Amino acid sequence: MTGKLLALVYGLFAYAVFLAVFLYLIGFLANRYALNTIDSGLQIPLAEAWPRDLALLVLFGAQHSVMARDWCKRASRRLIPQPVERSTYVLMTCVALAALFRYWEPMPNLVWDVRHPIGSRLLDGMFLAGWGLVAVATVQIGHGELTGLRQVWMYARGVTPAPPQFRTPGIYRYVRHPMMLGMLIALWSTAAMSLGHLLFSGVLSLYILLALGWEERDLDRAHPEDYERYRERVGRLLPR
Prior knowledge:
Layout (H helix, E strand, L loop, with lengths): L2 H28 L15 H21 L3 H7 L8 H19 L6 E4 L3 H25 L1 H5 L1 H9 L20 H11 L3 E3 H28 L1 H10 L7
Helix pairs in contact: 1-4, 1-7, 2-4, 2-9, 5-8, 8-9, 9-10
């Protein structure tokens, strides 16, 4: 098997894992359609559960942020060929999430419980709409590139990718970070908010807000003039 074909197979494998983990994450937070969910499983004392869960969330955030930084990418290229760099990042993110699913300690004590049919259905709809926004945003900005598929496909064909261009398609004309907006909506849209779900949503929301600053600094360095004009006319998470 040639190196190009091996890279393509590796990229396809990473993408298949990504799809499975992404769908599992939706079921995990929805408390259905998953082997174990955020509120299911044997309970341990609260004082033991929340530090373990917090450590899992910090581990995921550290992996997701450190591997995305330019200095880490430069260092990793000594071991990871550039065509499969993005696929490796996606795969390692999936591994971190899978570990979180496996070792998460449930804390099902309810913080709020919306039982009114209209209210609960509205929140369920917002939950699905949040994930839908994430999916639409990835497609509009380049799903294949974000997941590493485009890189391995072009490498397999022997095509040198063009330098990344600054683009603001579709919903990006109104919000700078629609994927993160969708994530925030999905994290908090639940009729039954448990202590475990609250910890998960709170820590990841804080991480998202911090990560937006790091990402915008990277974009500002890569496209200084374009991004400055873009930032002046388009809101970060809400349309102006």
